[in-house]
Specification:
By secondary structure, the protein is of the alpha+beta class. It has helices at residues 3-10, 15-29, 74-77, 101-113, 133-141, 143-150, 154-166, 170-185, and strands at 34-38, 41-46, 49-56, 61-65. It folds into two domains: 3-113, Aspartate Aminotransferase, domain 1 (Alpha-Beta Complex); 133-185, no CATH class.
Amino acid sequence: MNAVQQYIEQSAPFARPILLHIRSLVLTACPEVEEHIKWNMPFFMFKGEPLCSMAAFKHHCAVHIHKASIMNDPWLTDRLIGKTAMGNFGKITHLHDLPSDEQIIGYIHKAMSLAGIKIPRSSKPKQSLAMPSALHQFLSENPTIQQRFSKLAHAHQQEHIRAIADAKKPDTILRRLDKLREKLMS
């Protein structure tokens, strides 16, 4: 029994038939697939890269087609991570929640044809919060801190901006500015 079979056997009773069915479809569609456990869930690898993965949770299962974002399939991309569940098929609690076998096999074949093609990073501009006037004034009065602040990663700058912007009382703003000073001067 390999690690993926063990994972399925140790899953909740409702999840076993779902996971067995998905595994069977993947093995049928891509006999040369390699099965691995990564991040505590089954991954199906093809030509050294993830083809798809599946997972069982307390009350549902999920399937993720790793090249879904470049497949130009609205049904898949509408269900990308963060919208309905971890995977592309939403929260799966029964076999009838899955797309048809033909549709799943088609997605696997399409993912196989995309092997070796890199998924482009998002070209969306980074979201930036407006700098609170208290932070702007603090930085303009402290050139060394301003220089160090400007060298922080965008995400870290945004964390500090958010911390100051979320403060409601003037003394909270001052405490957070002092913490920022300590952090950047150490």
